[in-house]
Amino acid sequence: MTTNGDIGGFDAGGKIVKMEVDYSTTCDEKIPMWKSWASKGRVQEAIDQLLSLEKQTRTGADMASTSRILMAIVQIFYEAKNWTALNDHIVLLSKRRSQLKQAVVRMVQECCTYVDKTPDKETKIKLIETLRTITEGKIYVEVERARLTHILAKIREEEGNVAEAAKIIQELQVETYGSMDKREKVELILEQMRLCLAIKDYIRTQIISKKINTKFFEEEDTQKLKEKFYRLMIAVDQHNGSYLSVCRHFRALGTAGGSDALIGSVVFLILAPYDNEQADLTHRLNEDKELDKLPEYKQLLGLFINPEIIRWNSLCTNYEKMLKSTHFFDSADEKGQERWNDLKNRVVEHNIRIMSMYYTRITLRRMSELLGLGAAEAEEALSQLVVSGVVRAKIDRPAGIVHFRFTEGGRTTHVGADGGELHALWTTPEGSRLSIGCHRKPSRVGFLSSCPARSQLAAAGWSKRS
């Protein structure tokens, strides 16, 4: 036993404790002797001696010696197969006054190696619960606690209690663990997602997924984790009906996802409502060389790219059998039937967009014929596209005419009942000159009243707005 001024370690409160006495020589001499006593049946006598020396090393702030003693105590109980005494002394040693943190860490790490060596499941669970109790709220053993919690969640899942397993593993805030390896963090977060998804807690699964930075999957040897993550996200967004997100997840799987991922990309892309992002992704997917290996799906995608009306009956004849052979349109599944109805809606929306490109106005009856819908259904579909901003149109219900807006010469024009005359006025050379004249800065207040375009507008039947 010697004295020196080295730093001994940290106490339970996190304060640096200066080592007052070095007990390493004493430990080298006594610990092997007391272990031999225990092996000969003198377990309690050996433990009493170790506890007495532990008090001295702890008060002397000798971290290394205290760690050795704590490990010796748990090793003796493990070798004696006295699991009850082991659990009791784990709690006792961790709660001793001014116990050194590093000593507790070493003891917990040693005990974690015993978890898989327990004789039965009940003993295993008791040991895990004991270790989880003493590690709760302690940052310096957060990694060990996370691993123990994961093991306990697996046990509950194997018992069929998935809800309890999900509840247990959700206790972990893995993303805040600074001492844990990044890969292990991702693995635990994926387990949290998987168990939440198993109990159909889609909202919590979505929230947990945001804890993973997808840039992690750009690193080497992360392919399996990447595939697991995107498969889970596909399940979540399929349930939520976020078709474009599902398509992006399939695309993220890349060639590792195989032909199923490519088929999923096409299917959910054409199911997604039209917008700029969907249109851009459609063209990029169409240029993918891998899609050439699936000519039927490439042709199907091409239908939604070509500016031509799609006949629903023709699409069903050519592609219904192929599509319904996939699990995406399984008729036995409620979601599968819902997707088939959404596909029909996407065809209707595509056709209305094409009409808005070729027609300035069309009767509602003729539109209904082209869409293969009743007048009320066609009007409802058109209204939804107008509200979402995909097309610009107005319906003249008394006349039964749909008027589309279009852009020409940088000016958006709405062609109404008398709009043709105004359009002709602004597109003729004379009208253009009148337009320039009307937009010059007036030199007097009455300029507009004398503007030559005013009489032209009046002649066309347009009166001054009140």
TrEMBL record:
Gene3D superfamilies: Winged helix-like DNA-binding domain superfamily/Winged helix DNA-binding domain (1.10.10.10). PROSITE patterns: PCI (PS50250). Residues 225-409 form the PCI domain. InterPro entries: PCI_dom, PSMD12-CSN4-like_N, PSMD12/CSN4, WH-like_DNA-bd_sf, WH_DNA-bd_sf. Keywords: Proteasome. Transmembrane segments: none annotated. GO terms for cellular component: cytoplasm; nucleus; proteasome regulatory particle, lid subcomplex. SMART domains: PINT. Belongs to the proteasome subunit p55 family. This is 26S proteasome non-ATPase regulatory subunit 12. The gene is PSMD12.
